[in-house]
Amino acid sequence: MSLLSRPKAWLYRALLASVLVSILTSTGALAQDGSDIGSLREAREAAEARDQARLQSFLDDQEALEAALAEARAAHEAATEEQAALEAQQEEQAAQAQALAQRQEEQGEALSALLSDLTRHSEEIRNELGGDSWLTLEASALPPRLNDVDVLERRQIEAVVDSLARLTFNTGRAERLELPVADASGDIATRSVVRLGDFAAFTESALLRKGQEEGGVLAEVPRTPSAISELLAAYHQGDSREFAIDPTHGSVLEALAQQPTLWERFQQGGYVGYVVVVLGGIGLLVALAQYLYLLLVSVRVRRQRQALSQPSADNPLGRVLQRFKEMDKHQTPEALEARLDEAVLAELPKIERGQPIVKLLAAIAPLLGLLGTVTGMIVTFQAITVFGTGDPQLMAGGISQALVTTVLGLVTAVPLLFAQTALSSRSRFITQVIEGEASATLADHLEAQSTLSGQTVN
User: How many CB atoms are closer than 10 A to CB 149?
Assistant: First the structure.
């Protein structure tokens, strides 16, 4: 049986053709190298033998040829099926495009213009209310988008009209909603929220603000003013109908919330402010302790003045009288007066105790405030040198320190001056009482001694 009479004769013809091409190529290469006739014949015979062996290997592996042929047929059938599916999809899309074109022709120019107007107004409303309005707390509050609509349908018109009517109705309505709210610490929980039209939304203790992105989680406004918090609580519980509304849509409330508290003001003073306040506190404590001591002394001196003949050691007047009572009365009047003055002077340090330090702190406090002012201005000028004057917030820290330290210095100095004046007045009064009673006692003694001397002479 000849080679050509076997099945798949065309495949074998192709293999023989490739063998002949290889032989011719080998022959040409040898000719170009300048080999002789004998070597060319040997090379041709060797190539023919190699090709015959290769052809015989292909003929022997009949199963591999059949498998390759089956794989090629399967790939051809898959490509044919895919082509048929694509052609069917193309025909379907063409039919849809034709149907849409026919419907557009049927609706005419009036409905096309209506679709254009609805699309434009729907986008304008979404852009205007999507970020800041309280009317869009629900997900389906805004009108639908019509940018991808080619043919206007009745349900689309009804959806736009219904959403606009619902938004208009909610502008004059107060309602209670259950929505997720983030508190000041960032924890999100479902809270009872009262919405007043498009003006405000709040919980039982704080006003709310919307997230930056559309559909963002509501968050409590940090540091809601206490007066507004009380109104919110009363309104939320139904105890009052009064409510504070910011006509600037939050600008005024934001400014009020940014006002620093007393503690934050104190912290703006920096280290100089801390020193001023500590020294002022020390001065006030010293003044308070000494003033209480002087009040106690005043009470005891008043009691002693009612019993001068029975001096007590628990008050300065009693100690002075007791000292005078123990003196030698046969001394000269000048010596007795000097001894009595010495006893009075011995009581003055306790009476005037604390006044020098209070007076010193009252004088130092404004100077420390001035020091804080200078350091704050230095910080401000350094910020201007580095960052320029484009951003005022970069200079706010230094300016705050300069002003707050001055205020702290004055606020500390004024009470200390009042305290020092009160201490001085009280101590002067006690000193005058002691000196007056001591002088009166000395005068009484001298008069009695002079009278006794006169009676002795007579």
Answer: 13
Contact indicator for 123, 145 with CB cutoff of 8 Å: yes
3-state secondary structure of 217: coil
Q: How confident is the model at residue 139 (pLDDT cuts 50, 70, 90)?
A: low
User: In Å, how far are 290, 351, 360, 414, 426 from 418, measured between CA atoms?
Assistant: 14, 18, 13, 6, 12
> In angstroms, what CA-CA distances link 297 with 314, 346, 438?
9, 15, 16
Q: What average pLDDT does this structure show over 310-315?
A: 81
Q: What is the pLDDT of residue 211?
A: 61
Indicate whether 5 pLDDT > 60: no
Angstrom distance (rounded) from CA 169 to CA 157: 18
3-state secondary structure 280-347: HHHHHHHHHHHHHHHHHHHHHHHHHHCCCCCCCCCCHHHHHHHHHHCCCCCCCHHHHHHHHHHHHHHH
Neighbouring residues of 146: CB distance < 8 A, sequence distance ≥ 6? 115, 118, 119, 122, 156, 160
Mapped onto helix, strand or coil, the DSSP state of residue 234 is: helix
Tokens of 328: 């030698």
pLDDT given at position 417:
93
Q: Would you mind telling me the total number of residues written for the chain in this entry?
A: 458
Rg of the chain over CA atoms, in angstroms? 54
User: Cα separation of 161 and 154, whole Å?
Assistant: 11
Element (H, E) at 363: helix 355-387
> And the tokens for 69?
């042929």
* Six token digits for residue 139: 């997900």
Give the list of residues 6+ apart from residue 349 with CB closer than 8 angstroms, or none.
none
Question: In the prediction, which pLDDT does 30 show?
Answer: 41
Amino acid identity of residue 182, one-letter, is A
Tokens 């009673």 locate to 437
Joined tokens for residue 183? 């508190």
From residue 422, alpha-carbon distances to 51, 348, 436 in Å are: 129, 16, 21
Token pair recorded at residue 223? 């540091």
Mean pLDDT score, 58-63: 64
